[in-house]
Amino acid sequence: MASGRVDLDGNPIKPITICMIGAGGFIGSHLCEKILAETPHKVLAVDVYSDKIKHLLEPSGSGSLPWADRIQFHRLNIKNDPRLEGLIKMADLIINLAAICTPADYNTRPLDTIYSNFIDALPVVKYCSENSKRLIHFSTCEIYGKTIGCFLPKDSPLRQDPAYFVLKEDASPCIFGPIEKQRWSYACAKQLIERLIYAEGAENGLEFTIVRPFNWIGPRMDFIPGIDGPSEGVPRVLACFSNNLLRREPLKLVDGGQSQRTFVYIKDAIEAVLLMIENPARANGHIFNVGNPNNEVTVRQLAEMMTQVYSKVSAEPPLDTPTIDVSSKEFYGEGYDDSDKRIPDMTIINRQLGWNPKTSLWDLLESTLTYQHRTYAEAIKKAISKPAAN
Ligand code: NAD
Ligand code: UDP
């Protein structure tokens, strides 16, 4: 653990108390690990679940973890718990990660999605503003919606011009589909909470930073259906494809897998968040894209690469038919729509924090799928053999 650590301007970093809401999720678990292992800061971890951070929490009375006095877990639902304001008052910095953020929910549970991403975040913003607390709020790259380029004719050469697809925090418009495409309920709720936070900054002096993650992936993302999540649940693409590979089923390509994404390794992205935490003067008042523009693939290419990588780490040959096409209506139901392409502009995060992602798509898939295989392969084998044994 560091002493004598300095920020990007050479000033000593003072230990602070961080109230992290949604600390028990994918990003929260990695952020807690990083803060506890590499900094002197304290974490008040708030979530309804703690499974993904249980390795960081002290088994009662054991006294074995070096950071035992720097993390407290508070099991609470921010929707309706009066303890939230007290926790915010105890902290120097609030990080809000809590959200419903799996696309399968956006069109099937739009009310829960809107409440979670807008209404439930309101008291957090209000308590931060009223108590003059700094806020780092997690938004999404989905706020950009579709690219301008996707409205051009298919054969237009302008489609190759970055001006028509690179997503810039301070210049790109937010382009969503019609209301009946309920996919956009999430993006729209996130957009409104961003606007509210921005307005609190402008009118009431709230110190804020907004993070727009571009497909962060890695170990502990979401769940494997039927193993540590509901059998009928639909997680994000990394976990969907991992589940298919573990079960030796073809990977399902929604609407042909033509959509494009850029994937960034969670450990690279967490370094960006730590820079924001420890450099408030450089991060306050900014909205940051956090992604890896060099790791762009179509979903079809992602499926092909994951199939190759999984075969390497599991030593199992790939299936003869590794992918199948499925319509979005069949896979997600009515009201699904998609972002066509997501390339983050990196100018602002580079200028303010000097951050750049390091890990290639192949390398991040290799370490993530090694984790998935080690964590789930046995459990899947047992689950598959059960019905036969009965
Ligand atoms: P996650 O679902 O793993 O984590 C969210 C956590 O918030 C969960 O542990 C959940 O239990 C908790 N939570 C939700 N509602 C709560 C409530 N009412 N009270 C208490 N806890 C609650 O998701 P994640 O991938 O870690 O994402 C974190 C944030 O980053 C979200 O705001 C999400 O919209 C944003 N984001 C993530 C990505 C990504 O690539 N992972 C991309 C875009 C945006
Ligand atoms: N997708 C897919 N098969 C799956 C799961 C997802 O083809 O089993 C596609 C999905 O339609 C989208 C992309 O993969 O185009 C990424 O989906 P994800 O759930 O990770 O979230 P998004 O990037 O859309 O927010």
From TrEMBL:
The keyword Lyase applies. It comes from Forsythia ovata. Its cofactor is NAD(+). It is an enzyme of class 4 (lyase). GO terms for molecular function: identical protein binding; protein heterodimerization activity; UDP-D-apiose synthase activity; UDP-glucuronate decarboxylase activity. The keyword Zinc does not apply. Coiled coil: none annotated. GO terms for biological process: cell wall organization; UDP-D-apiose biosynthetic process. It is found in: Cytoplasm. Signal peptide: none annotated. GO terms for cellular component: cytoplasm. Its EC number is 4.1.1.35. It comes from the Eukaryota. This is UDP-glucuronate decarboxylase. It catalyses: UDP-alpha-D-glucuronate + H(+) = UDP-alpha-D-apiose + CO2; UDP-alpha-D-glucuronate + H(+) = UDP-alpha-D-xylose + CO2. Keywords: Cell wall biogenesis/degradation, Cytoplasm, Lyase, NAD. Residues 18-291 form the NAD-dependent epimerase/dehydratase domain. Belongs to the NAD(P)-dependent epimerase/dehydratase family. The lineage of its organism: Eukaryota, Viridiplantae, Streptophyta, Embryophyta, Tracheophyta. Its main location: cytoplasm.
